[in-house]
Amino acid sequence: MTVDDIVKVTQYLKSAADIADYAKMRYKFLGDARPVFLLLVVPQLVWLEILVEVETIAAKAVVTA
């Protein structure tokens, strides 16, 4: 699978101030791929030291002859 198979990305950030930096990293890894995405700013993640959590869903079509 490649980034072209990614169909949805959900991102959780602890600080809205990190959105611009996160967007740069997202582009670094996804390039021009534009899956459906949701970005949420939340007060806390599971561990206090975590700043971002990313959930990615990919799907690959099965080709049958």
Compact description:
The protein is α+β, with helices and mostly antiparallel strands and 65 residues long. 18% of the residues lie in helices and 32% in strands.
Rg over CA atoms = 14 Å
The residue-averaged pLDDT reads 92
Q: Which regions have little confidence, pLDDT < 50, spanning 5+ residues?
A: none
Strand order of the largest sheet: 2-1-3
- How many H/I helices? 1
- The CATH architecture category equals 2-Layer Sandwich
The general outline is elongated
Q: What tags apply to this protein structure?
A:
single chain; alpha+beta; 60s Ribosomal Protein L30, Chain: A; 3-stranded mixed β-sheet; elongated
Structure description:
The chain has 65 residues and is of the alpha+beta class. It is 18% helix and 32% strand.
Task: Set down the secondary structure blueprint.
Elements: E1 6-13, H1 19-30, E2 36-41, E3 52-58
Parallel strand pairs: 1-2
Antiparallel strand pairs: 1-3
